[in-house]
Design goal:
Layout (H helix, E strand, L loop, with lengths): L11 E5 L12 H15 L2 E4 L7 H6 L1 H13 L3 E6 L15 H6 L3 E4 L4 H9 L5 E2 L3 H5 L7 H12 L18 E5 L11 H7 L5 E7 L2 H8 L3 H6 L3 E4 L5 H12 L6 H8 L10 H11 L2 E5 L5
Parallel strand pairs: 1-2, 1-3, 3-4, 4-5, 6-7
Antiparallel strand pairs: 7-9, 8-9
């Protein structure tokens, strides 16, 4: 894997919106200026927003090629040393047809972000480039009051003054009395060795685990015969809808017992989430995608 050069004061960093376009909305634009001020004042960086990064939700949703162009242009620009994502979202996978992996591979630079940006990290991985999970503009660098000290320390020791070995300490700002692992994008992070054994014993170590899948078939495809053990060690299941046949069959026959779920009424009840005058067909599509999720939780106590 190719490792990019560390950051130094005076380096230029670019901001991109590869998923959701909320950074450009009037109610959120202050977060761009807050993050820009901090990164320039506290770290000596030159911060620039790529041409499409602040064009808002509607434009960026309709133009995935514009989002991809910002990423490609940032990597092509030799003056830019780091690329920071504005925020996550739900559809950065739509950039894939416009990604030139040779550009990423031949112009290594620091890339950060999380959540939906996991897909972009996989693009970096395919290109053979090391990237850094975490550090988004709206959530980390534009934190109200100040950048979290834990985040700031990790930022400095990872990107400015990297060390050959660095022990990552537990954050002192966790609100949980016990450790809770919320494992989003579980289908995209690959197979964890011996997970079927780990889920059976972690509660005795005061650790709970929540796995998020869009369908149960994803878990079974990764863990094969061990998927049944993993699912069996989950104390609670939250199913937010979907159309994948094996998932519906499993939940209907083995978890719900005899009964009937009126899907149309469920959808109609949820539609008021969107104001009628702003409701569009594409938002319905986004809503359905967002709710096609299975949440599996291995609790500390029986639920």
């Amino acid at each position: 894997m190719i490792k990019p050069q560390r950051l130094r004061p005076g380096d230029k960093a670019a901001i991109v919106s590869l998923s959701h376009g909320s950074l450009g909305k009037p109610q959120f634009i202050h977060k761009y200026y807050l993050a820009k001020e901090r990164l320039e004042r506290d770290y000596g960086l030159q911060v620039v927003a790529m041409p499409n990064a602040l064009k808002g939700i509607d434009y960026l949703y309709q133009h995935p090629e514009a989002r991809a162009r910002d990423l490609m242009d940032a990597f092509r620009d030799p003056s830019i040393k780091a690329v920071f994502c504005a925020i996550g979202g739900s559809d950065t996978i739509r950039l894939l047809p416009y990604i030139d992996f040779d550009v990423l591979r031949n112009n290594p630079k620091i890339f950060t972000g999380f959540s939906d940006t996991t897909v972009n990290h996989l693009m970096m991985y395919k290109a053979g480039l090391t990237s850094y999970y975490g550090g988004a503009i709206m959530t980390n660098w534009a934190e109200y009051g100040a950048i979290n000290e834990y985040t700031a320390d990790a930022f400095d020791k990872t990107l400015f003054h990297p060390q050959e070995r660095w022990t990552i300490p537990a954050s002192g700002f966790c609100s949980y009395e016990t450790d809770r692992v919320l494992w989003d994008e579980a289908a995209n992070t690959g197979q964890v060795p011996n997970l079927e054994k780990l889920v059976a014993v972690i509660r005795s170590r005061e650790v709970s685990l929540t796995l998020f899948y869009q369908q149960l078939a994803q878990c079974k495809a990764i863990y094969d015969k061990n998927a049944e053990t993993i699912l069996g060690n989950m104390d609670s299941v939250v199913f937010l809808g979907g159309r994948e046949a094996s998932t519906i069959k499993e939940i209907s026959e083995n978890w719900l017992g005899k009964g009937r779920l009126n899907v149309p009424s469920l959808i109609s009840c949820a539609m008021p989430l969107f104001p009628k005058k702003k409701y569009r067909k594409r938002k319905q599509k986004n809503w359905l995608t967002r709710f096609m999720t299975v949440q599996l939780t291995n609790c500390l106590q029986p639920c």
